[in-house]
Amino acid sequence: MNDSISKAYDYLEKFKEVENPIVKNDDLLPLESLIKEKNYYSPSIPRILFVGEFKAGKSTLLNALLGGDYAAVDILEMTSWVARYWPSDEEFCKIVYKDGTEEFTSPNEFKDKCQDRNYSEEELGNIERVDIGIDNPDIKYSIIDSPGFGSTTVKNEKRVIDAISEADFVFWILSCEVIGGMREAAIINNIKEKETPMICILTKCDLIDSQDELQEVIEYVNETYDIELDSIFHVSAKEFFDSPTKYEVERFENLIKFINSNITVNKEEIRRKAQESHLQRIVEHCENLLKSIEEEVDKAIEARERYRSLLTTVRMTVINKLESDIVEYVSSNLFNPYRESIIERLKGIKGKLTSEKINESLEKSLPSDYMDEFWKGMLDYTLIRIKDLWSEGIEQNVEELKRINNIVMSTKFSVSFSNDIEEFKEITGVVADETFKTSIQASLGIAGVATAYAAILGPSAAYITIGAAATGIGIPIALMGAGVSAAVYFIKSKNGGSKRIKGNEVLNTTIDQFIDGVVRTEFINKAKELNAQTEEILVNKFEKQIYSRLPDENLDKINYEIKNLKAELGRLNLGDSRNESIQECPFCGKKITNNSAYCLNCGSSLKGA
């Protein structure tokens, strides 16, 4: 099979390996069926047609030539359908029913079911054709086993005649028990009229008592049906299987040598066109499946990019507003309600202001855990504002969220965005953690969205540490004292170092420096990082649902690979089959090209149809 077709098929097979694929097994079955048939249409594999009466030993001989137990034997009128056997990379049995449906099983299971008579008469009557792949590298030919002569339906005998047009060589299987009849004579004449090469194989020779009697049978066939003596072979397939004698083994070896030396494809041009047509059908199935996946992936990528853009817009709005809100919070709350007490103590300092004196004033004015509590309060305020601002931002983009929802709902990925935007708008202002998480999850429908916010609601405290231990979040008062000392130095430098410094000015400058040196550079930057993580986690959660139904966790890579495979298939040169006009087979109604010699679906001859 063409490398491009193999690559496309192997890639498509990956999609059915996931737990809940968008390409299901039933979608691939028609393609798998066509690929299993590829050797049957090969111009290098000749086809041998078995014809003969029921009970002539066709099935036993077929098993002997195929080197296995594939066909049911000793079952009257069991083969009322065409059975096709050919060399394959894997063994399989495909049952084609008259309504066009197909069923796959193993050759042994099908054979045993026939052998044990587990098929009802109605089930048998519904079978149109059976295809069996043989995994045996020594088999260099295909065998078409036709319904036996004497079938109870005219249609079955017509199948035999139609199959002659499909075959490169005919094996007339004639039992030594019953030497021919009127039906066989008519079929043999039909074979000769079509000028299809033929040999006669006399079976059940173990039932003949002497060599002289066997010779009489051979001469009778030679004279009655005008078949050359060197085209008449005699075997006992049953004896070959049950207790092969040296003589019987030699007879089978002679038959195999004849097959290998004399049987070739004698309708090579027709077969080549049939192969091109068959490969084209495979390509079309591959292209259709790839296109269907590509359409789904394209929509998923569009939804993801629009969702990412929406979240980026919201995140930027959150960050810009959050920074001003936090600065306002610190400006209004740092040192409150101890501000006046600190100023009074600073006023009472005699002599030069030093860090030690300032620290002493702070320690006497502030509770020992003041900075820890202030820091925690600022963190709580930040988390509340983040939640509120994200909710407000999403609410302001409701229409875009609806558009994303419509895209998602049109895919096979079942990514659940809610249409209940009004409910979302009502609950986005709720601050309580569990209610907030539930509202986001219910409104966006993204499983696990609370995980994104957990990065803000929980671990954020551990990330934001300014000069403190890794397990704490506080800023020691001594560090604040150093900040106040720096503020004093700054004010003195600004005013030439001579002016008396007011305590109020010291605190205001300290707050400003705290905002610029700590809040903006450390705290707000960390808040920006956490918001960026929030955006990425939300996008990842969206993608995760899609990836659960795809063989690769990368939408863009899948999109790229599918487009490349489609391009490769589009460049294939399969003769003129793309340009041939299409018509329907008059027997089964399937589409065929206008110059086909026979139907690729039912095998019927189209000459004169």
Give the tally of β-strands.
11
Structural class: alpha/beta
Question: Order of strands across the widest beta sheet?
Answer: 4-3-5-2-6-1-7-8-9
Low-confidence stretches: 418-479, 576-581
| Count of DSSP-assigned helices | 22
Shape: rod-shaped
Whole-angstrom Rg: 43 Å
- Helix fraction, binned, reads 55-70%
Largest sheet: 9 strands, mixed
Q: How much of the polypeptide forms β-strand, as a percent range?
A: 5-15%
Task: Indicate the mean pLDDT.
Answer: 75
Q: Give the end-to-end Cα distance, rounded to a whole number of Å.
A: 31 Å
Fold and architecture overview:
The protein is an alpha/beta fold. It has 22 helices and eleven strands. It has helices at 3-15, 25-36, 58-66, 107-115, 121-126, 154-166, 182-193, 211-225, 237-242, 246-262, 268-333, 339-347, 355-365, 370-395, 398-409, 421-427, 433-444, 449-457, 460-463, 477-494, 503-547, 555-570, and strands at residues 47-51, 82-87, 92-97, 102-105, 127-134, 142-145, 169-175, 198-203, 232-234, 582-584, 591-593. The strands form two sheets. It has a nine-stranded mixed β-sheet, sandwiched between helices. It has a two-stranded antiparallel sheet with strand order 10-11. A hairpin with a 4-residue loop joins strand 3 (92-97) and strand 4. Helix 11 crosses helix 14 (370-395). The longest helix is centred in the middle third of the chain and has 66 residues, at 268-333. Mean pLDDT is 75; it is low at 418-479 and 576-581.
